[in-house]
Amino acid sequence: MANSKQQSEVSLVDLPAHVAIVMDGNGRWAKKRLMPRAAGHKAGVGALNKIIESATGLGVKCLTVFAFSSENWNRPKLEVSILMDLFVSSIKKYLPELIKAGVCLQFIGDRSAFSEKLIRSLVEAEEATKSNTRLKFNIAMNYGGRWDIAAATKSLLEDVQSGSVSTDDVNEELLSKYMSLSNLPEVDLFIRTGGEHRISNFLLWQCAYSELYFTDVLWPDFNGEEFVQSLQWFSSRQRRFGRTGEQVETESDSRKVGKH
Ligand code: FPP
Q1: Domains defined along the chain, listed by start
Q2: Residues annotated catalytic, as ranges
Q3: How are strands ordered across the β-sheet holding 103-108?
Q4: Cβ distance 174 to 191 under 8 Å?
Q5: Mean pLDDT, residues 229-238
Q6: What is the Å distance from ligand 1's center to 9 Cα?
């Protein structure tokens, strides 16, 4: 669990409601240690477990991680198969802890390409944690932001075709209801480890107004302290959502006055 020093360092008022993470750098972490890439992915699972503990300890309500992209099928067959096995074994290993910690698991992405065994373990994990409310923890697997938008559009078109939705009602708000994670707030803070400054087709719709945080730290080395640093950076950002800096400052001053 996150220690009390970490908790006191972050102003809870400024916590992002939803954090998304691209966990990059497992391969390089392993290479530096002359280990196989699989060892990097295994260490990556350990890092993820620590961040879930930090997030629950600090009071972050939603966390979404990119575990396997629609494009990751292009990796060597052996690595893909190792990753698939790691998903099954990690879910089995950590599920009891996640249940105890009050974590609600949800998997997003196209499951149709997965083995029956993996699909079963995803469904079981979702079922076993569905009434938990402490942390909504979403794992994106065989996921792509463009896939998400296309799948949402397809479902919406089906509803238009069946007559349950009128074309005149189609707008951003309605389409967003068809997207993955429509049950959660939009992403406030997007973190990418491993030194690259790219979104890589993750949560394109849901990250429209996210603050983007990039760090050179390789994912297996990303720990509670690094996570707190990213939250501190987030709390120093002025979020304008299209308004001017002056407007935001005036509004925040009047909110402060209202508090007294
Ligand atoms: C990117 O690093 C990492 C991945 C493609 C896999 C991430 C998966 C995990 C951390 C396991 C998560 C497990 C569960 C159960 C959710 P990379 O391999 O591209 O690293 P590199 O850029 O250094 O080569």
Answers
A1: 4-258 (3.40.1180.10)
A2: 24, 72
A3: 103-108, 135-143, 62-69, 18-22, 189-192, 211-214
A4: no
A5: 91
A6: 29
- CA-nearest residue for atom 14, ligand 1, is 87
Within 10 Å of residue 164's Cβ, how many Cβ atoms? 8
Q: Whose alpha carbon is nearest atom 16 of ligand 1? A: 67
**Mean pLDDT, the chain, integer:** 92
Cβ atoms 140, 65 nearer than 8 A: yes
Work out the pLDDT band at 222, boundaries 50, 70, 90.
Answer: very high
Condensed to tens digits (0 to 9), the pLDDT of residues 33-92 reads 999 999 999 999 999 999 999 999 999 999 999 999 999 999 999 999 999 999 999 999
Q: Which residues line ligand 1 (CB under 6 A)?
A: 23-28, 41, 44-45, 48, 67, 72, 86-87, 90-91, 139, 194
Q: Which amino acid is at 67?
A: A
SS3 173: helix
Q: What is the CA radius of gyration of the chain?
A: 19
147 and 72 Cβ atoms separated by less than 8 Å? no
Cα separation values, 147 from 37, 123, 166, 231, Å:
27, 21, 24, 29
